[in-house]
């Protein structure tokens, strides 16, 4: 009898213990807690604020208390110029990415297969400029291309001819972007190509593939993960580029990021700036997710 | 090449002829002036330890490396300027080098796709080859990286056969597999050789593997071909100490003539009867199965006295380690024997031992 009572008590206790354990987090969740809090405060909260602002009344600070699509309407209103900067940013980014893939592929190929022991030096040369602020490097190019600058002056000295005026044009903006983002395309590509086993290329040749066939059937598909990371990285960076158009382009072209900056500062139109930010986030975010679905990250990181 | 080696293949036509082939990498001679003839339909195996230059030799045959000197002739025509994708050779890599982004079918069909063969014909050929290498038909659309080691091996084999190359080159393709699977595939490879009638040139560091499969074997060391011959010749008449050691566990005694027709060893007592062609310094090679325990010292031409140090069961036979002075001798017997722990006498007949000159 006594023992029976004891048993009941026992099970009651164990039940209580189980219950009190229930709401406690699993070890995994507990470890993730700091990161979750950080992401909520530092990422989700500002993003929510920006999204909320994008639906606020134009030229107001009535966030969460008003709702309107006017900001989005303004972006797509062809009487305004905002849509143009949107288009400029997207097309400049697209052309940059396209040019970069054409420029970076041969360099990456060289670094993996041709340069041999010099490839370390070559990659250092490409990394080195990254230690200097982007703005400083861009002003350096201004000094190079400006009238009576390094380029013009040297030409004058040598042959008396004037250098063509290239500053403050869309072309020089593109040049600046390609220059700035080259490493971000180059290194993922090097990674992609270096994951390509030499034997596999030899086997393809042995089975009768020509150089072009080896490239199309073996090299490109196997280097694709690295290539896609490069494309993604440079596109996202290039869409958000602002310094190139300001410093080299001299505002000959107004890019999207510039419009966003103006909306939040001089124009004091936070809702419009927010709407622009939300749109561009949707575009780049959508692109990123799409790429990541297609991409096998395990293979890129050599875990397969 | 000895005459008996040629006799077995004399009715066949000469296919490959290597004349003074040499390969130098940064001043290092990987392959040193090799002269070799391979007959049509032959299974020729090159054996050697790692770094002996056998892979380099194979890559030169495949056209992936160019000889620094000398020439390779295929039916009398030089192959030197012919790139890998034009040669009638196909290499099965040690790493297999399967295309990881393709299915089993796409891997096998690759050579045909490169030759712009219609998809239907390609598939038909791929399925035919999959039957030959015993891969189930359902594997056609399977991701090749999801196959097991043995299956990958079969895919690599089928892929090499697709476009009907005359010469198949194998670079230790079985080395990564476990023992049982390797044994199975060795036999299948030999069957495949017989069925297709193609010329196989095979590389391995295992002489055992070479013995099972080959018509002829070439033993390589430091970039040179030390001996070329049939498996039997290599086994019974190794040309030097290196080849005999490479054959597996053997007892080797360094001997020199004592002037009276017999031979002496520096670290063993007594003198020995040796079947040597001339009176020179050399090595006596005695296989463990030719050493036996003697009841009387006069039961064999030569004898030694020692103690049994250890015994191992090899399954079908028993191997004894016998300590004689400072040396160990290996004796293999079909059945276990018991020894009282005292001295034993081991011996061999001169006819069973091999003499190789220094």
What features would you describe in this structure?
The complex is a heterodimer of chains A (304) and B (358). Chain A is built from 14 helices and no strands. Chain A has 304 residues and is mainly alpha-helical. Chain A folds into two domains: 54 residues, no CATH class; 227 residues, Orthogonal Bundle (MetI-like fold). In chain A, 74% of the residues lie in helices and 0% in strands. Chain B is an alpha+beta fold. Chain B has two domains: 243 residues, Rossmann fold, CATH 3.40.50.300; 109 residues, Beta Barrel (OB fold (Dihydrolipoamide Acetyltransferase, E2P)), CATH 2.40.50.140. In chain B, the strands form four sheets. A six-stranded mixed beta sheet of chain B has the order 6-7-8-3-9-10, sandwiched between helices. The interface between A and B is medium-sized, with 18 and 26 residues.
* Major sheet attributes of chain B: 6 strands, mixed
Could you state the order of secondary-structure elements of chain A as H and E? HHHHHHHHHHHHHH
Q: How many distinct folded domains of chain B?
A: 2
Query: On the 0-100 scale, what is the average pLDDT of chain A?
Result: 86
Structural class of chain A: mainly alpha
Largest sheet of chain A: none
- Which stretches of chain B are low in confidence, meaning pLDDT under 50 for 5 or more residues running? 1-10
CATH domain class name of the largest domain in chain B = Alpha Beta
**Over all CA atoms, what is the radius of gyration of chain A?**
28 Å
Strand content of chain B: 25-35%
Assign a percent range to the helix content of chain A: over 70%
Shape of chain B: elongated
Distance between the termini of chain A: 63 Å
Count the strands of chain B?
A: 20
In a nutshell, what does this entry contain?
The complex is a heterodimer of chains A (304) and B (358). With 304 residues, chain A is an all-alpha fold.
């Amino acid at each position: 009898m006594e023992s029976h009572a004891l048993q009941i008590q026992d099970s009651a206790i164990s039940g209580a213990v189980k219950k009190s354990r229930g709401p406690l987090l699993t070890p995994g969740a507990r470890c993730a807690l700091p990161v979750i809090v950080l992401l909520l405060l530092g990422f989700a909260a500002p993003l929510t604020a920006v999204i909320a602002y994008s639906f606020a009344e134009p030229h107001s600070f009535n966030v969460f208390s008003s709702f309107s699509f006017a900001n989005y309407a303004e972006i797509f209103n062809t009487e305004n110029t905002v849509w143009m900067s949107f288009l400029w940013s997207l097309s400049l980014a697209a052309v940059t990415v396209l040019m970069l893939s054409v420029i970076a592929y041969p360099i990456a190929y060289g670094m993996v297969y041709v340069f041999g022991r010099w490839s370390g030096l070559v990659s250092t040369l490409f990394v080195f400029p990254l230690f200097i602020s982007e703005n400083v490097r861009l002003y350096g190019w201004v000094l190079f291309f400006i009238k009576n600058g390094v380029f013009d002056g040297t030409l004058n000295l040598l042959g008396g001819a004037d250098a063509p005026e290239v500053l403050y044009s869309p072309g020089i903006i593109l040049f600046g972007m390609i220059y700035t983002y080259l490493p971000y395309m180059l290194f993922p590509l090097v990674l992609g190509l270096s994951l390509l086993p030499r034997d596999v290329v030899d086997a393809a040749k042995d089975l009768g593939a020509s150089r072009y066939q080896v490239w199309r059937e073996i090299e490109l598909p196997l280097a694709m993960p690295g290539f896609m990371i490069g494309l993604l990285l440079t596109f996202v960076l290039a869409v958000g580029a602002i310094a190139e158009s300001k410093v080299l382009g001299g505002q000959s072209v107004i890019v999207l990021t510039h419009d966003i900056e103006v909306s939040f500062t001089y124009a004091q139109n936070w809702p419009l700036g927010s709407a622009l930010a939300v749109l561009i986030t949707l575009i780049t975010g959508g692109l990123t997710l799409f790429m990541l679905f297609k991409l096998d990250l395990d293979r890129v990181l050599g875990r397969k | 090449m000895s005459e008996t080696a040629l006799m077995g293949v004399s009715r066949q036509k000469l296919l490959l002829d290597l004349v003074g082939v040499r390969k130098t990498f940064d001043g290092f001679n990987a392959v040193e002036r090799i002269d070799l003839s391979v007959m049509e339909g032959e299974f020729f195996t090159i054996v050697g330890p790692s770094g002996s230059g056998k892979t380099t030799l194979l890559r030169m045959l495949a056209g992936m490396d160019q000889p620094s000197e000398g020439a390779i002739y295929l039916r009398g025509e030089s192959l030197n300027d012919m790139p890998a994708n034009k040669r009638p050779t196909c290499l099965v890599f040690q790493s297999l080098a399967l295309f990881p982004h393709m299915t089993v079918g796409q891997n096998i069909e690759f050579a045909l796709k490169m030759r712009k063969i219609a998809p239907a014909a390609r598939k038909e050929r791929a399925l035919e080859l999959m039957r030959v290498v015993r891969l189930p038909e359902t594997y056609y659309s399977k991701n090749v990286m999801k196959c097991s080691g043995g299956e990958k091996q079969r895919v690599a084999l089928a892929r090499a056969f697709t476009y009907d190359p005359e010469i198949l080159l194998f670079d230790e393709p079985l080395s990564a597999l476990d023992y049982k699977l390797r044994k199975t595939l060795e036999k299948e490879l030999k069957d495949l050789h017989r069925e297709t009638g193609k010329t196989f040139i095979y590389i391995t560091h295992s002489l055992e593997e070479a013995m099972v499969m080959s018509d002829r074997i070439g033993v390589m060391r430091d970039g040179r071909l030390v001996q070329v011959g049939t498996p039997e010749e290599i086994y019974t008449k190794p040309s030097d100490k290196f080849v005999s050691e490479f054959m597996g566990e053997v007892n080797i005694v360094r001997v020199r003539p004592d002037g009276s027709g017999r031979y002496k060893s520096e670290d063993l007592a007594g003198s020995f009867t040796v079947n040597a062609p001339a009176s020179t310094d050399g090595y006596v090679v005695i296989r463990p199965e030719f050493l036996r325990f003697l009841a009387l010292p006069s039961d064999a031409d030569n004898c030694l006295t020692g103690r049994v140090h250890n015994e191992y069961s090899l399954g079908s036979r028993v191997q004894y380690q016998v300590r004689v002075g400072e040396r160990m001798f290996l004796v293999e017997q079909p059945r276990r024997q018991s020894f009282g722990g005292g001295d034993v006498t081991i011996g061999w007949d001169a006819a069973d031992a091999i003499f190789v000159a220094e």
